Amino acid sequence: MKIPPEFAPKAYGDIAKFCTIEKQEWQGNGSWIGVVVMPAGLQDDFYELINRLTKGNAETRLLK
Predict the structure, then answer these.
(1) CA nearest 29: which of 64, 61, 2, 60?
(2) 3-state helix, strand, coil in the chain (%, to 5)
(3) pLDDT exceeds 90 at position 64
(4) Which of left, alpha, beta for 44 (phi over 0: left; psi -120 to 50: alpha)?
(5) Rounded CA gap, 41 and 34, in Å?
(6) How far is C-alpha 16 from the chain's CA centre?
(7) How many CB atoms lie within 10 A of CB 3?
(8) Which 3 state secondary structure label does DSSP give 22?
(9) CA–CA separation, 6 vs 19, rounded Å?
(10) Does residue 37 surpass a pLDDT of 90?
(11) pLDDT-based confidence at 32, cuts 50/70/90?
(12) Cβ(7)–Cβ(53) under 8 Å?
C-alpha cells in the first residue's frame, strides 16, 4: 500500500498494530509504502481501517 504523507505517521502505528509489516519504505516526500501480511479473514477490516485513517486516499494492491 502507499499512504500519502499527511496520513503516514499516524497510519503507520495503527497498521503495525493490525498486521505484520513485511517490507516498508519511506519516500522523500513523506509517503509510506508497505507490504503487509494478514489472514484473509481480516482483509475487509483492514481496508476499513486504511480508508478511515487516510480518508480514502491510500493506494492498495492485493498480492498473492
Answers:
(1) 2
(2) 40, 25, 35
(3) no
(4) alpha
(5) 20
(6) 9
(7) 25
(8) strand
(9) 21
(10) yes
(11) very high
(12) yes
- Which CATH topology does 2-54 take? Alpha-Beta Plaits (3.30.70)
Q: What SS3 state is found at 52? A: helix
Report yes or no: 19 and 42 within 8 Å, Cβ to Cβ.
yes
Distant-in-sequence, close-in-space partners of 24: CB < 8 Å, separation ≥ 6? 32, 33, 34, 35
* Tens-place pLDDT, residues 38-62: 999 999 999 999 999 999 999 999 9
Residue 4 host element (H or E): none
Q: Is 20 exposed, middle or buried (0-12, 13-18, 19+ CB in 10 A)?
A: exposed
> The C-alpha cell of 21 is what?
509489516
Q: Which amino acid is at 6?
A: E
